[in-house]
Design brief:
Elements (H helix, E strand, L loop, with lengths): L1 E6 L2 E5 L3 E4 L12 E3 L10 H7 L5 E4 L1 H4 L10 E4 L5 E4 L2 E7 L15 E7 L2 E5 L19 E5 L8 H11 L3 E5 L8 H13 L11
Parallel strand pairs: 3-4, 4-5, 5-6, 10-11, 11-12
Antiparallel strand pairs: 1-2, 2-3, 7-8, 8-9, 9-10
Helix pairs in contact: 3-4
Length: 211
């Protein structure tokens, strides 16, 4: 399985399927089997990018308010609507929606029912946190035995590098990866601080090369 950071909060998982998460300002275009959207903000539900990679039969997993943006396309996508706590199987791939919200900001309300995702594929679990603060529900993730945790570090709209590191200490993934920086908010310095904090506690980090 290959995992590639596409910039901002976007990732591509490649195994038997090509799975995009929050594609935004894509530089390299490959057609998608599955797309996961965390919420309806323009930098996570980017219609221009979705139209580049969606084809007939592409499955798009998303919260309900994203579906209203994806209407009357020329291609026939298959929508799957999930809210936190719900899950679906696509062949042997398990996708579970996980809460993602702000605790001390107004950008991502808990009542929006927006998502992070736990993707289980090939015996590995990847957690994409979505746009979130350090929330109490993350304490349950240690027992999930997450292999890779993709955590926002930018601050402003999400947790900052220090908060993301505290989340990583709770989740205890095999590898922690910073995201949500370098475009809308946050800098590479935020990512490097996150990695330094994680590594000081013995937690392995990865920083994927942007496509």
């Amino acid at each position: 399985m290959e995992l590639t950071w596409l910039g901002h909060a976007g990732f591509l998982i490649e195994n038997s399927k090509k799975i995009y998460i929050d594609p935004y300002k894509l530089k390299k275009i490959e057609k998608a089997d599955i797309i996961l959207l965390t919420h309806s903000h323009y930098d996570h539900c980017s219609i221009d990018d979705l139209k580049k990679i969606a084809v007939d039969g592409t499955i798009i997993v998303m919260p309900a308010d994203c579906q209203s943006k994806i209407n009357k396309w020329a291609v026939k996508i298959t929508p799957i609507i999930l809210e936190p706590g719900q899950e679906t199987y696509i062949e042997k791939i398990k996708i579970k929606a996980f809460p993602a919200y702000n605790t001390n900001k107004h950008f991502h309300g808990k009542g929006e029912y927006w998502n992070g995702y736990i993707i289980e594929i090939g015996g590995k679990k990847i957690y994409h946190a979505g746009d979130t603060d350090f929330i109490p529900e993350m304490a349950s993730l240690e027992e999930q035995k997450i292999d890779v945790a993709l955590l926002p570090v930018s601050g402003v709209y999400t947790m900052n590098a220090d908060e993301a590191a505290r989340a990583a200490f709770i989740i205890k993934p095999r590898i922690a990866v910073p995201m949500h920086y370098g475009d809308v908010a946050g800098t590479k310095e935020d990512a490097l601080r996150f990695m330094d904090l994680c590594e000081s506690e013995g937690l392995s980090c990865g920083l994927e090369n942007e496509e």
